[in-house]
């Protein structure tokens, strides 16, 4: 064998790839499912927290800031491991999927809350005063006047953060969630051939290159004027 | 409550695990000190090369940046840690981690520096060049210093992410903080070391989070 053939045999081993392709495809859909669940839960929770914070109740806000800070300071992998390996020792058990989903959704919620809150603060005070003086209630002012303007400001940073956290679904492999990386890694250890890893890498590119471009487009579409 | 103290805040276990955690902590610090400067330098190089006139260079860099931004860092790390040895190159865990993080973080830092460089008005180049500075001098003395100042919040934010990223090294058995904590957990059958590791991350990174939060409010408030 020439060295090129050996390289092909190692990284593009067709029989191995064909054998494990169905597993990778299965993982592909698990990754999509997990990612969508994280984004839906994380952004909703972030928005709710930011709205709650707008009521400016001191003890509540102190608590929100504390939790958000903790979630931003801890590495997501540490949170997943705490949920999956530490919580069971005090009797709280969850599946690997739930542990990964919950950890990433909480991290996204924390970042989203900060971004939405900054957006709400960026809406000038006059908007609040004008809306309230036309007879709108506090909640109507928030949802009909302030939030629509705030959310627009937050779209570029929120999109980028969401993409970054969505890629964290690969961390699920560490606690054996059957997503792309886990499938690729176990196929690699069964076949002792890195071709499945390459296949997994390609699956991630198929999934995330469009997402990265979407993020870029959002960024230019809603470009902040400096 | 008793159970919680027993399982998460067990002082006897903590005393046993402390030397492991400490050596893990220093490995994390060492990793950070290698990865962050390398990533910053790589990112700055990517951004400066993106200003090149050659279209081929610019396109290559766009592909490079998008490619590594689309890859989850853990996927890249595993690919390098498990795949590269098949090429007959034995990197070792530390080098595999450093290399994969360099590829990943230099793409992110590169995008940030590029945005900074693009924020500098054309007139600055023209003025600098017309005073007789060379192209390189213009970049080094006029453009880059202003560009960096414009993107400090993004740089800090990305650095925080990079430090948190070092925890991934535990997956390829590099004995950093998280790895040490998990080892200690499996030896002691107690979750205290993991909680303690979380606390260490928290104490070290909280100031950065506070700083960032201040930056972010200012940034959005300006628009």
Alpha-beta content class of chain A: mainly alpha
- Name of the top-level CATH class of chain A: Mainly Alpha
User: What is the name of the CATH topology of chain B?
Assistant: MetI-like fold
Low-confidence stretches of chain B: none
Q: Which range does the strand content of chain B fall in?
A: under 5%
Determine the oligomeric state from the structure. Answer: heterodimer
Low-confidence stretches of chain A are: none
Describe this structure in words.
The complex is a heterodimer of chains A (226) and B (223). Helices cover 81% and strands 0% of the residues of chain A. Chain A is mainly alpha-helical. Chain A has one domain: MetI-like (MetI-like fold, Orthogonal Bundle). In chain A, helix 2 packs across helix 5. Chain A is elongated and about 80 Å long. The termini of chain A are far apart. Chain B has a single domain, classed as MetI-like fold (Orthogonal Bundle). Chain B contains ten helices and no strands. Chain B is elongated. The mean pLDDT of chain B is 91. Chains A and B meet through helix 1, helix 3, helix 4, helix 5 and helix 7 of A and helix 1, helix 3, helix 4, helix 8 and helix 9 of B.
């Amino acid at each position: 064998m020439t060295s090129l053939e050996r390289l092909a045999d190692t990284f593009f081993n067709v029989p191995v790839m064909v054998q494990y392709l169905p597993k990778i495809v299965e993982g592909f859909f698990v990754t999509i499912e997990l990612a969508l669940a994280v984004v839906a839960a994380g952004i909703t929770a972030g928005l709710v927290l930011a709205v709650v914070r707008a009521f400016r109740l001191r003890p509540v806000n102190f608590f929100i800031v504390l939790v958000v800070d903790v979630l931003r300071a801890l590495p997501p992998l540490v949170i997943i491991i705490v949920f999956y390996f530490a919580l069971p020792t005090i009797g709280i058990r969850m599946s690997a999927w739930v542990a990964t989903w919950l950890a990433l959704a909480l991290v996204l919620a924390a970042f989203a809350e900060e971004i939405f809150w900054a957006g709400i603060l960026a809406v000038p005070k006059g908007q609040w005063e004008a809306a309230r003086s036309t007879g709108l209630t506090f909640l109507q002012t928030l949802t009909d006047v302030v939030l629509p303007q705030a959310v627009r400001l937050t779209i570029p940073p929120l999109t980028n953060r969401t993409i970054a956290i969505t890629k964290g679904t690969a961390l699920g492999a560490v606690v054996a969630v059957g997503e792309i990386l886990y499938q690729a890694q176990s196929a690699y250890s069964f076949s002792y051939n890195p071709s499945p890893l390459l296949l997994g890498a390609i699956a991630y590119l198929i999934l995330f290159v469009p997402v990265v471009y979407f993020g870029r487009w959002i960024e230019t579409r809603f470009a902040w004027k400096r | 409550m008793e159970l919680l103290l027993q399982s998460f805040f067990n002082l006897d276990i903590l005393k046993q695990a402390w030397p492991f955690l400490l050596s893990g902590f220093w490995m994390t610090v060492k990793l950070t000190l290698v990865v962050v400067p390398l990533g910053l330098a790589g990112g700055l190089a990517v951004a400066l090369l993106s200003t090149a006139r050659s279209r081929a260079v610019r396109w290559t860099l766009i592909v490079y940046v998008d490619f590594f931004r689309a890859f989850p860092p853990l996927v890249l790390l595993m690919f390098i840690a498990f795949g590269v040895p098949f090429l007959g190159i034995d990197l070792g865990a530390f080098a595999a981690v450093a290399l994969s993080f360099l590829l990943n973080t230099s793409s992110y830092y590169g995008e940030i520096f590029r945005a900074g460089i693009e924020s500098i008005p054309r007139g600055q180049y023209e003025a600098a060049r017309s005073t007789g500075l060379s192209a390189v001098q213009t970049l080094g003395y006029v453009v880059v210093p202003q560009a960096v100042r414009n993107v400090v919040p993004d740089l800090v934010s990305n650095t925080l992410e990079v430090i948190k990223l070092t925890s991934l090294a535990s997956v390829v058995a590099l004995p950093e903080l998280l790895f040490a904590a998990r080892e200690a957990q499996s030896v002691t059958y107690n979750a205290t070391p993991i909680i303690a590791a979380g606390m260490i991350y928290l104490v070290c990174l909280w100031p950065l989070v506070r700083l960032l939060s201040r930056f972010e409010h200012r940034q959005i408030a300006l628009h």
